[in-house]
Amino acid sequence: MPLDGKIVLITGAGSGIGQALARELASHGARLLLVGRRVEALEATRASLPDPRHGMVLAGDITDPHTRAALATKVSTLGRLDILINNAGLVETGPLRADDAFRRRRMVEINLLAPIELTMALLPILRASAPARIVNVGSMFGDIAFPGFAAYSATKFGLRGWSEGLRRELAPSRVAVSYAAPRGTRTPAAEGFAELASALAMPLDPPEKVAQQIVAGIRRGARDIYPNGPERWFVLLQRLMPGLIDRVLIRRTAGVIAALSTEPA
Predict the structure, then answer these.
(1) 117 near 68, Cβ under 8 Å?
(2) Is 226 among the catalytic positions?
(3) pLDDT score of 194
(4) Phi-psi region of 221 (alpha: psi -120 to 50; beta: other; left: phi over 0)
C-alpha cells in the first residue's frame, strides 16, 4: 500500500512506538491523526514531523466511549480514513498479587477493549474508504507468555485473536487487518518492567526500529508483522512443542520471579 497522502489515525501517538510510527509514516507522505491522552505529548510528536501541518492532534482517553464517538465524528468530517493503527497500550508486569485487580482491569480496558470498540466506531468510514487497513499492535508476549507477564500476555493474546477473526470477517469489504508483534521495546512503558527485563537479559529494541518494521509491513500489505530474529522460531516452537517452552521459561524465570515477589510462597 502506498502511503503518500493516506490518512492514518494512530492511538498512543504521544510517545514510544506511536511517536516513532508517526515520524516514519510522515516520512512516506502520510497525513496523520495523532490520538492520545496528553495534548503536550501529542503536540511534541506533531512538531517533530517533517511537516507539522500534516499532523492533527486529537486528545482524549480511548477507553471513554464519548472520546471514541467524538473521534468517529471528527474522522467523518474528513471524508475518509485509510489506515487505523491501534497502538495505545499499558504494560503491568511482575509477580502475581491479588491486590492488583484494578491494574489488571485497566490493562484489559486499554489493551483489548478500547481497540475493539474504537475499531467498531470507525469501521463504517474504513469500509467507505476501502481499500483500507487496520493495524493492531500486539506483542511477542501475545504468542509466548512469560511468567511475570501473565495478565499483559492475556490482553495481547486477545488482541491477536480479535485480529484473526476481524481479518476474515472484513475480507469481502476490502478492509485488511495486520497484526504487529514487536518484541520488548525501549519506551516509557518499558520502565515499569526494567528490573524484570534486566534480570531476564531481555533485549529491547529502539522504537524507531519497531516503527520501521511495522511501516514496511503496512506498505507490503503484510498479514502479520513479526521481528526478524530467533523470536520467529520461538513462536513456531510454542505452537509445535509448548511443553518445551514451558520447561525453558520456568527454569529461566523461577528465581527472578521469586526474588521480585513480596508475598510469601
Answers:
(1) yes
(2) no
(3) 67
(4) left
Could you give the C-alpha distances from 83 to 6, 94, 137, in angstroms and in order?
8, 34, 13
12 contacts 86 by C-beta, under 8 angstroms: no
| More confident of the two residues 161 and 2 | 161
Sign, CA dihedral 49-204-35-163, equals positive
Residue 192 confidence (pLDDT): 66
Residue 264 predicted with pLDDT over 60: no
Residue 146 is predicted with a pLDDT of 87
Q: What is the CA angle 254-226-115, rounded to 5?
A: 90
Distance CA 86, CA 159 (A): 10
Q: Structure pTM?
A: 0.92
Give which of 203, 165, 173 is closest to 185, Cα–Cα.
203
Three-state secondary-structure class, residue 241:
coil
Q: Which long-range contacts (CB under 8 A, 24 or more apart) does 122-125 make?
A: 122/9, 122/71, 122/72, 122/75, 122/81, 122/84, 123/175, 125/72, 125/75, 125/76, 125/80, 125/81
Calpha distance 90→1 (Å, rounded) = 29
- Per-domain residue ranges of the chain: 7-260
Confidence category of residue 263, pLDDT binned at 50, 70, 90: very low
Question: Is the CATH number 3.40.50.720 carried by domain 7-260?
Answer: yes
Q: What is the chain's length? A: 265
Residues 6+ away with beta carbon under 8 Å from 46: 22, 32, 34, 52, 55, 56, 57
As a whole number of angstroms, the distance between CA 38 and CA 180 comes to: 24
Catalytic residue of the set 141, 149, 152, 193? 152
Higher-pLDDT residue of 181, 251: 181
Look at strands 175-180 and 224-225 and give their pairing. parallel
